[in-house]
Amino acid sequence: MLKGIHVSLLVGPAVPIPAPKPIMDALQSIQVTSDANARSGFQIKFNIDNQSPLHTLLVLAGGRVPWLRVLIVITINSLPMVMMDGLITRQEISASNEPGMSVLTVTGEDLTVAMDQREFNGIPYPAMPAEARVALIVAKYALYGMVPLVVPSIFTDVPIPTDKIPTHEGTDLAYVQKLAKDAGYVFYVDSGPLPGMNTAYWGPEIKLGMPQPALNIGMDAHTNVESLSFTSNQTGATLPIVFIQNTLTKVAIPLPIPDISLLNPPLGAIPPIPKEITLLKETAKMSPMAALSKGMAAASSTADVVTANGSLDVLRYGNILKARQIVGVRGAGLAFDGLYYVKKVSSTFKPGEFKQNFTISRNGLISTLPRVPV
Questions:
Q1: What pTM does this model have?
Q2: Which of 5, 15, 179, 337 has the fewest Cβ atoms within 10 Å of its own Cβ atom?
């Protein structure tokens, strides 16, 4: 069994291959950022000299191929995990007077960057619900191992061709994200589980599932985080109200939308009291299904009033903390113990060191569970 932490880099135009030993020997650090609210990315730093084979990497990424693809695989105790599958977007060299001490910085983003390069305005989608349009668009990127995982909308709105035919607007990424926003959904590309495989998820932001190993603070030998700080901001919660128009009387009926749903359960026992009411007046022009979806999206965006920021050493934690999943917190006190949703994780790997900075959140104080899972 392979013990400890090992990193692997695969680089290539379409199908990446393992990086040669001279490139791995020049590796200085790797940083991977996964964010539930933004595009994920990576940054790799190498020591470089005038004879380094990394100059070939610069030439290729500088325009000789359309995209140079990079896979970052971390193996912990023989268990591989794909941290990032992305495309190089930028290269920088910091020159040094010392031989071999110049630094090459390679920056890239996840595969959604390939979906954001060209506009396809005007392509019609007759009688196709939003989820069918998303699956059709993602299918164009099968070259990158991208497989669509599409969850049907809670309130399905299929336009009748005699009334309206939806058309493509902007780039593939912009249009898919617009469809997700209108449905109260999210869209992102998740790397793995195997190298070369990617899941394009379009659906609700699910805050359910098996919790990751708990984050322990102030528990002596059981402590596995280096720092953890909490913030409770009760002023951000709002109550959105949508307007549904009666087709007979043409009267707009106001309808308040709660921030709790089956896929967004209360992680805190004391939810925030909305301090403000937001009137979504533009929803009166929408269909009832589209208006309800937009209201649910607005409600969930302001529900998380408790946030925490921290850092940990992966070797001590014993696992890699993942974004967009649930994790427990222990030892922080009655108000802040319990389950949280991991919103952002920034992982930094250096030879002999692997650390993570993270941001977690939830929609209330005090745990909903009598005991936090270990």
A1: 0.86
A2: 15
Residue 333: Cβ within 10 Å count: 11
CB-based contacts of 178, cutoff 8 Å, min separation 6 = 169, 170
- Contact of 67 with 85, CB cutoff 8 Å: no
Cβ neighbors of 148 (< 8 A, separation 6 or more) are: 134, 135, 138, 139, 200, 202
Contact 228, 310 (CB under 8 A): yes
- What is 5-109's CATH topology? Thrombin, subunit H (2.40.10)
Q: Minimal CA–CA distance to 290: which of 176, 205, 181?
A: 181
Helix 172-183 and helix 288-301: axis angle, to 10°? 90
**DSSP string spanning 135-158?**
HHHHGGGGGGTEEEEEPPPSS---
Q: Please, what's the b/e burial string for 97-112 (b: 16 or more CB within 10 A of its CB; e: otherwise)?
A: eeeeebbbbbbbbbbb
Q: How far is CA 324 from the centre of its chain?
A: 6
Does residue 57 contact residue 68 with C-beta atoms inside 8 Å? yes
Extents of the domains making up the chain = 5-109, 118-203, 212-233+305-364, 234-301
CATH no. of 212-233+305-364: 2.30.300.10
Cβ 56 vs Cβ 48: under 8 Å: no
Integer-rounded Cα radius of gyration of the chain? 23
Q: Which CATH architecture has domain 118-203?
A: 3-Layer(bab) Sandwich (3.55)
The tens-digit pLDDT sequence of the chain (374 residues) is 456 788 999 988 878 889 888 888 889 999 999 998 889 999 999 988 877 777 766 666 655 566 889 999 998 877 889 999 999 998 888 877 777 678 889 999 999 999 998 999 988 998 888 899 999 999 999 999 999 999 887 666 666 776 778 889 999 999 999 998 887 789 999 998 888 899 999 988 888 889 999 999 999 889 999 999 999 887 766 777 777 776 666 677 777 776 666 556 788 887 777 767 777 767 766 766 667 666 766 666 667 789 999 999 998 998 899 999 999 999 999 999 999 999 999 999 998 889 999 999 998 888 888 888 88
| Nearest C-alpha neighbor of 17 from the set 57, 47, 64, 55 | 57
